[in-house]
Amino acid sequence: MGGEEERRPKLIQGNEACAEGAIAAGCRFYAGYPITPSSEIAEVLSYRLPAVGGTFIQMEDEIASLGAVIGASLAGVKAMTATSGPGFSLMQEHIGFACMAEVPCVIVNVMRGGPSTGLPTSPSQGDVQQARWGTHGDHPIIALTPWSVRECFELTVRAFNLSEKYRTPVILLMDEVVGHMRENVVLPDPSSLEIFDRVKPSVPPEWYIPYEDTSFGVPPMAPFGEGYRYHVTGLTHDVRGFPTLREDEIEPFMARLFRKIWSHLDDIQTWDTFQMEDADICIVAYGSVARAAKRAVLEAREKGKKVGLVRLITIWPFCRRAIEEALKGCKVFLVPEMNMGQISREVKRVVRGRGEVLTVSKALGRLLTPNEILEPILEESR
Amino acid sequence: MAAQRYEVRFSGTGGQGVVLAGMILAEAAGLFGGRHVVQTVSYGPQVRGGNSNAEVVISEEEIDHPKPIALDLLVPFTQQGCDEGAKLLKPKGIVLLDPEMVTQMPEGWIAPLPLKRIALEATGKGQMANIVSLGAIAVLCPHVTIEAMRMAVRERAPRGLEEIFLKALDAGYSVADSMREKITFREAPSPED
Questions:
Q1: With an 8 Å Cβ cutoff, is B50 touching chain A?
Q2: A369 touches chain B (CB under 8 A)
Q3: What percent of chain A lies above the pLDDT cut of 70?
Q4: Is the pLDDT of residue A85 over 60?
Q5: Could you give the ipTM of this predicted complex?
Q6: Cα angle at A381 between A380 and B4, to 5 degrees?
């Protein structure tokens, strides 16, 4: 790895880059059930993982897939699965389990048209709110949205790092365009990457308290099989991992579950801006749609409109500060999405009447065009 | 003005090598021509049949919107692919087509080339029409040379079939070079026709 040959640009797919990112991040276990448009991730890992001493299993369904991933992670192995909408629906219960038991894992959802089997070969962004609220009960979640082949690699690495650091499932929300798109890219040298591995206990097994609070909010995690015996359950539990009904144990547990994410937003949230310096109209976009939006910004500028772009890279927790920043100069927001308006409601929630929020919400099974995004802008300023 | 984009669509049905052609063009322009490229696909959920497109955007600068906005070149292998793609053509966009595969030609600039017959004569395999079309594209597209196309074909061709693939490519190139001046503007058929 890292030789001259490796650094030559290659024409690869977003899905392939995601699989390579997983290997580079240290993922050594994949369990999944192939589904369009995510299948290439499984295909590549089916030969890449055994080649690096990892494990690949094709499971009977997506419920079992995430179950196997959680088991592998508890045994100390970085693990992931990949799917699309229908499989993501089946995984929801286990996503909640991973939140509750604080098991690091990465779930890739290459979004296609829905609901149900919907438009299997077509792009969509219809699972954005499902990624946030698909599993029941109050829980924080981290989700990332790449817009290019190179970013599929980078954000897969980041997804693993965040999941290891915060002991939480991390969702990589791709879409069919990004997953199937090929670009000529030079992938980062794996040896140059910053890789975070979960913190293990430094105390002997008999002193280990598996869910004890720390100043960081994330308890060290002992891999099963190394002598640290502890109880893992989906039931609300005390610091030793056993079920509890005591308010004085439930309250600090729930508080820590949220605190470990909310007190580290600086580390978790990233977004990008383009031509926002003097903008009075702000486009908020993510995934492949942000590429159409970037072009719309350039075309609007040619027509003398001061338009800028805020591109969400971390989509959950929602980057409130990105919108607050934009509100200093912008009174009009435009949210184009390949769904019926799932992130625009978040933007409206933050803007709270301090500006106007326009939407381009189309779930047609194709990427929005720059013109479709431009239209309301030109109308707005007549 | 935003960077000049050169946009190509290969259009056909499952099994005609539409995606392979798109990948080879993208590699020729991107890896061997030093251009930025984005190649995307669109097809239906059926295993066989149905319309299948591979699209390539080529630019000297970084590419934002990954899908074609207006096509410079359309390469249809079916009538349906031609009819649908023609609506996306630039005013001076060219349609590279085999008159035997696409019998009803659209209005616009047409480069007719018997892709299937050339493939058959050069390699004995009519299904190499997609590779023959790449030879012609090396003439028509300013972002790729035949040398770059040869390198890309050699890398992508299945093991042991490299020479046959190259034969098909060169056959397309040699015929297309002399065809260049035959690209003609075809008026829309008038109601009297």
A1: no
A2: yes
A3: 98
A4: yes
A5: 0.93
A6: 100
